[in-house]
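Shipment paperwork, digital attachment
Item: protein structure file
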Amino acid sequence: MTVTRADRNVLRTLAHEVAGIADLPVQRETRSLWRALNGLQPVRPMARIDELPWHEMDVDGELTLLSQDETERRLERSLRQTLYAWRHMPLDMVVEPVIEIPKVIRTSGFGIDIRETTLVTDPHNEIVSHGYIDQLEDATAVERIRAPVVDLDAEATAELEAKAHEVFDGILEVRMQGWLPSFELWDDIVNWRGAQTVLFDLADRPDHMHEVASRYTDARLEMLDQLEEKGLLGRDQALIHCTGAWTDELPAPGYDPDRPRVRDLWTFGMAQILGSVSPQMFEEFEVPYASRWYARFGLAYYGCCDPLHERVHLVRRIPNVRKISMSPWADVEVGAEAIGSDYVVSYKPNPALVAREGWHPEAIEDDLRQVVEICRRTGSPLEITLKDISTAAYKPQRLWEWADIAARVVRG
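Attachment content:
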């Protein structure tokens, strides 16, 4: 199906704006700064904002969609969000002269369905509360976990690619993007079982939990092999877990952009539920399984909302980690002292500071300056990423001001 003239005009107008921004010298300069940071030779701390509550962000119609076809609307939404972020909170984002089109990759699933109940507080917000129903109560159920069969839907992918070239040729590079794998072993198990059930069984039924974790890890690795063998992995990562991924160390020698290998890529993962267990249990139930996954990749980002400040010595045992998360619930000073100059400290400020009833920019600046000073003292490369923003109290200007504050702090 061809693109209508009206939709094409909308998309090409936005694409020309993106291309003009992508051509600015600052994009090359910022990529260079990310390469230095990721090479553990930082010029300065880096900062970004990601995972925004886009339903709260529209100002003067900047995010209002004009195209009609659903495929074109997805492309328009992505372009408008890029332009919005650049106008209002650019920080250390990089705008590239590229439009990424995900390949249509089908999977047969892991043999287990998520069964849940949800609660919604804001009908416009995608973030809801989940109550999961246990699907893996016994050994028979665990045997249902299997490696998905992964295949490219060539016809659907070709149709998307043809549309993209029709619209963007001569303005932006069309990049057909494959799968960029991550490893959330315990997050996925929680989705199949529920948090309380998992925590009780880690203590009361450890053999059962090892069986679940082992079978799932085997399935994920088999899926990874399929993605590599079928040429379905992604390439040219700009981001890894909301942070800049530019590096001089990837791809690995022998790289073929038409058939990327696992070792050409970053990966990321976390074990957030294990933030509620002892370091010894984290060592037993996360490190061996995560190590099997991370050993396959070129570089890795580890952690998310889990407090890792007292577990850095255990994360060190996971291969190829380059960045370690320091969440709002971590003691950054303890974590940075343990990290030293060996990894990037990936600090995540508390998004509650932009969501609460009162607005206190001085508290935001004090927090950021304290973290910058800690990492200066410990010699730790530092990136700051405000993310997981479920709400800004419908005041998008708070995020714009946060960006101004962060820019002032990291740029001295």
